[in-house]
Amino acid sequence: MWFLYATCEVPEPQAAQPIGWIGVDLGLANIATTSTGYRAAGRGLRRYRERKRQLRRKLQAKSTKATKRVLKRQRRRETRHAAQVNHVISKRIVAEAQRTGRGIGLETLTGIRERVRLRKPQRATLHSWGFAQLGLFIDYKARRAGVPVAFVNAHDTSRTCRRCGYVDRNNRVTQAEFRCRSCCFVEHADVNASHNIAAKAAVAWGRGAQSMAPTLE
Ligand SMILES: [Zn+2]
User: Fold this and answer.
1) Which residues lie below 8 Å from residue 130, measured CB to CB, with a gap of 6+?
2) How far apart are CA 213 and CA 206, in angstroms?
3) Does residue 124 have a pLDDT over 50?
4) CB 63 within 8 A of CB 9
5) Measured CA distances, 108 to 5, 13, 189 (Å)
6) pLDDT of amino acid 128
7) Lowest mean pLDDT among 45-54, 96-105, 118-127, 158-167
8) Which residues are in the CB-under-5-Å shell of ion ligand 1?
9) Separation of 101 CA from ligand 1 center, angstroms?
10) What is the enclosing helix (H) or strand (E) of 50?
11) Can you tell me the mean pLDDT for 70-84?
12) Which of 16, 59, 213, 215 is deepest in the core (most CB within 10 A)?
């Protein structure tokens, strides 16, 4: 039997001039939060992972050939599930951008990695991989749809007040709450950050500094 492998190039539509930007904040508590009001909570995925972790622990207790095989299958299934979640989220964000004629502002992946590393070193690999994949999915779906993407440095986006511009790490009271020390502006921290990312994306695009696609390391 013969198989023919052929590749074909699909031309990307030229990205149009956007009439605005959707800023996307990626995080652990919320996988993605956009400046246009969409939030993908991470709770479901965290619970799923926790269940899988417990199952793995049980299986690891008796290390036989059979359990090793099951473990391997479980890991593959978990990876597929996480990818599926990322597909759903990225599809939704890109569809909205396309429908409303907007571009998408994303944090550069190095920024995401730094941020995650600072918090919990052991978890960094898995989570930063998840972020990187979501970024990649958004990027390639956007390219296919002719939606412009701008990658911005996420430095200070979570501690800057999007109303008055005041930067202070104490602006972020808790994981979820942003409260500006200068103008008393209050908002969900991820929402505030997503607006800052949208603003940065507009500036970056205006400068013609459309960033390169992220790469997985
Ligand atoms: Zn303020």
Assistant:
1) 31, 82, 86
2) 18
3) no
4) no
5) 34, 23, 19
6) 62
7) 118-127
8) 161, 163-164, 166, 180, 182-183, 185
9) 29
10) helix 43-61
11) 91
12) 59
